[in-house]
Amino acid sequence: MTVDEALRAMAGSFLLISLGLAHYVSEYWLLFSAFIGLNLLQSAFSKWCPAMTIFRKMGLPEGGSGCGAKAAD
To answer: Which of left, alpha, beta for 47 (phi over 0: left; psi -120 to 50: alpha)?
Structure first.
């Protein structure tokens, strides 16, 4: 798993968890969903995300695994 893949997995997991908590516990959990969206939006422009720094320190490799990247044969 690369840094990009880990970031997408974490963001998607947190988003689904926060939506479930908003449905079953309190609507205030939607604020967490908004925070996730804002963080993803700012990272698109600044090219920096705190989670990516953590994943790099954990030793995950960088990778061109974006939607347009071709798989290595």
So the answer is: left
Structural tokens at position 30: 């939607």
Are 61 and 2 in contact by the 8 Å Cβ rule? The answer is yes
User: pLDDT digits over 35-51, tens only?
Assistant: 999 999 999 999 888 89
For the chain, what are the domain ranges?
Answer: 3-56
If one counts every other C-beta atom within 10 angstroms of the C-beta of residue 24, the result is 8
| DSSP-derived secondary structure for 3-16 | HHHHHHHHHHHHHH
State the sign of the Cα–Cα–Cα–Cα dihedral 34, 47, 10, 73.
positive
| pTM summary value | 0.77
| 36/63 Cα distance (integer angstroms) | 22
Contact by Cβ (8 Å): 62, 2:
yes
